[in-house]
Amino acid sequence: MNAFLKKLGLVLIGGTVQGLGMGLFLFPNSIPSGGAGGITILLHHIFNFNTGLSLWVVNFLLLLFVVKFLGKRFALWTVVGITVASLTIEYTETYLMIDHRNLIYDLVVGSVFLGTGIGLLMRQGVSNGGVGVIAFMIASGRNILPGKPLFIINSIIFVVTGIVIHWKIIFLALISQWISTNVIDIICRITFYETYTLGWRKKP
């Protein structure tokens, strides 16, 4: 029970910190936090869909494709994480407004928050959702590292987002990815090889 409560607490914190980075700093500048974030920004830009709800729906639909591969327990924890992140995004966009924005500040701080939140989730063996779950399934099926398929999928979504909204988004998204992934490495350095490997993801 103590282990469960500890994991639940850290997943809630991780999802909240991730949501703050996205909803308070990145999304207001149309900076994708990843593949699912890019799709969310496109839906908001084209159809004016709510970003918090859109992110949850996109993540949930992507998760449905791989739930049999990843296992129900992993999927359930991932749903908890993405739900907390989406609710945090909804809260920040409704109640927390920044009047005078600085793009560079938002980019750096938002990416640090994003990486910290995802890192906390990963340390608990929980995915932050998004196209990462698709990339890990592809990587496992082809016996390759997940970085390449993840980069390719995210890059395609970033390019489409940049074409539809503004070309600078492509570069901002890549910078954000570089910052956040380095923060993730720092957060996960101690337990990375124990908790975030392909091995624990594949369930019988």
Q: Rg to the nearest angstrom? A: 16 Å
Q: Helical element count?
A: 10
> Given the helix and strand composition, which structural class is it?
mainly alpha
The string of secondary-structure elements, in order, is HHHHHHHHHH
- CA(first)-CA(last) distance: 24 Å
Count of DSSP E strands? 0
Mean pLDDT: 84
Give the CA-based shape: globular
Helix content percent band: over 70%
Oligomeric category: single chain
Strand content: under 5%
**Low-confidence regions:** 191-204
Overall number of domains = 1
Largest sheet: none
List keywords for this structure.
about 200 residues; mainly alpha; about 80% helix; about 0% strand; globular
Tell me what the structure shows.
This protein starts with a helix and ends with a helix. It has helices spanning 2-26, 35-47, 51-70, 72-95, 103-123, 132-142, 147-164, 168-188, 192-195, 198-201. It has one domain (2-201). The relative contact order is 0.18. The longest helix has 25 residues, at 2-26. The chain contains 10 helices and no strands. Helices cover 79% and strands 0% of the residues. It is mostly helical and 204 residues long. α3 runs antiparallel to α4 (72-95), α5 (103-123) runs parallel beside α8 and α7 packs antiparallel against α8 (168-188).
Can I get a quick summary?
By secondary structure, the protein is mostly helical. It has helices spanning 2-26, 35-47, 51-70, 72-95, 103-123, 132-142, 147-164, 168-188, 192-195, 198-201.
